[in-house]
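TL;DR need structure tokens for one chain.
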Amino acid sequence: MKKKFPRFKSDHEAEEFVAKADLTEYDFSDMVPMRFELRRKNKSINLRLPEQLLDAIRKKAKRIGIPYQRFIRLKLEEALHSKT
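>> reply
TL;DR here they are.
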């Protein structure tokens, strides 16, 4: 049986662990993929939304742990890449 992956208090602590540990011994089944935004955002838009919709967006973004504006960008990208 594989070991449960530990939680870390800092990036430094995580880096030290990864540098020394044999990661094949650990269970990654409950890990959530992270997406990093590295490209600079050089354009902005103004968008009017119903207050209820914006509140729902903010709640959903908070629940998954990302800023609401990033959540909106992700959903727009998903819509553009969908096959419909």
